[in-house]
Design goal:
With 108 residues, the chain is mostly beta strands. The protein contains no helices and 8 strands. Helix content is 0%, strand content 51%.
Length: 108
Amino acid sequence: MIKRNLLENIVIDKENEKIEDILKTRNIRIERIISNGQSTEEDFWYDQEENEFVILLEGNAILEIKEDNKIKQIELVKNEYINIKANVKHRVKYTDSNNPTIWLTIFY
């Protein structure tokens, strides 16, 4: 058993987002993601076979959700969360470049 704090050891890297597995089994994957101004490539959309529960632990971000050929922007701030159903196209439009944006994502 390892005890850790989700808000410790925050890496500031303006070039690369840091993604680390916290827990990974056959049925669930939990990641901590640290963004420092990164966003999804312009023409790329995530379209995953898993549901994704996302909570923003620090910072702020804007997600884009594409459903029925309509794009909806959703702003997230600290402690807000969203559940993205499997096969719903989505992308990260914005993360703060001045302060780390820390995500906790649960794929199930």
